[in-house]
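Suppose you are handed a protein chain with no further information: no name, no annotation, nothing but its sequence. What can you learn? This example shows the usual starting point.
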Amino acid sequence: MAEEKQSVRAFIAIHIPAGVRERLRAAQAELERAITESAVRWTPFEQLHLTLEFLGNVATENLPPLESALKQVATPHRPFELSAERVGAFSSVRNPRVVWAGIEGETDAVKSLQSDVKSSVRSFVAEQETRPYKPHVTLGRVRTVKARDLRRVSDALAATTERAFGSWRVEEFALMQSKLSPHGSQHSTLATFGLGG
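A reasonable first move is to predict its three-dimensional structure. Written in structure tokens, the prediction is:
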């Protein structure tokens, strides 16, 4: 019988400083108070991040070449400034499925980095994301709820004013592991890649 290959569920992300995450968590709490309890599965404080690319299951034997490819991606890119601002939703505020905080600042730099990351990991993933990249921080995912509860989520989002959650200097990105458990996923950093080598 062939030995089953070991793999990790992985993604590539930019870490967000604790101060910015604290302000994002305050916005989550504000929204939570305005909507039906448990209508949204909120992203835990320690898991608030900016995703560059979700990889899915990657064979552990492929991690060293993957890390090597990502290191090469990081070298030509220079550090840049980002900020988290405003709250919105996919597919829309009126039909919310994913609640997010928007990303502003040097967005061309993060989109360029994401594009290079996506190209470099093509051979390591079974299925690539085809939708255009829109940098954002996922604050929560709307559960399957009754229409009136969905309206409450929508109304709370519509009433949320434009706000600034803070800015930070991006100097690295990370290869992350996501372990699924009955209590939700647990994230850990496998490797980091400094911009500019």
